[in-house]
Specification:
alpha/beta, about 325 residues
Amino acid sequence: MKVEQFRDPYLGTTWGELGAQVLTSGNKVGVTLGYPARGLADRLAVELAAFLGVAQVDLDVRFMAPAGRGFGNVKHVIAVASGKGGVGKSTTAVNLALALDREGAKVGILDADIYGPSQGMMLGVQEGRRPEVKDEKNLVPIKAHGIQSMSMSFLVTESTPMVWRGPMVSGALQQLLNQTLWDDLDYLIVDMPPGTGDIQLTLSQKVPVSGAVIVTTPQDIALLDARKGVEMFRKVDIPVLGVVENMSVYHCPNCGHENHLFGAGGGEKVAEEFGVALLGELPLAIEIRVQADGGRPTVADDPDGEVAAIYRDVARHLAARLWALDADAPQITMDDN
């Protein structure tokens, strides 16, 4: 039984079909996957040993991003979007960027919400800090918690309102994208503004986006808008990698009781309706909000915690979906382990 016949836990497709690079020597196995999986190595070693029928496998998991369709020094652009505001999209975007970094990828985040940029605060970038300018036009991204970042909040003060019409906003987005000196990124996470307006159209028309992630909550109105988001990306031929459901369940810290305050199973319904993956479900937890507001998002502040583990699982899952698209893998299942 060959290692190449092992089925990837996220995709249900064999590593051989996906194009994973495999080297074996006795019980030592080296595998290079198309998604970062540092946090999955121990689980894969156990599952692979069982698959091969041996007591133990000494597994070395490495990562090489698919060739991609990005631009400049960016291999893949991934849009994190929502149909409406208030669903935790920006918090999800920054935690997914940090999670991909912790899993072994080189990551940047672009705050594309020109009217209401928030990533500067979430990343703990000091107010008033400005990016370095090179050649009088190019911006050097600001590093925070290990990832590269760029936001309109780095260029204006918090009290400056962006009273701009659509074309000016679109132009600002293109400048932030093309005049930022991104340093050899595997993934650039783009935190989109809510809705389906000018920024979304500009990104889809001017930038080779590899895939999109839709963030929603279980509420019916949020799900309605999530459907619009999925349809929008499909109309502009951007693959939807999957759906992330925020505020899925509330765990009482005192008694342990669980309550689905905003409904249950909504994200799964949208995913099934459009034939995409449910990438993960995040709980309604005050610490997620507090950590992001304090400039230390969950994955940075509590990297070994339960919520950070969910973000890292979602990050691996979406990157695996991207790898499958690149490999044009057959018979991909919708298993969302």
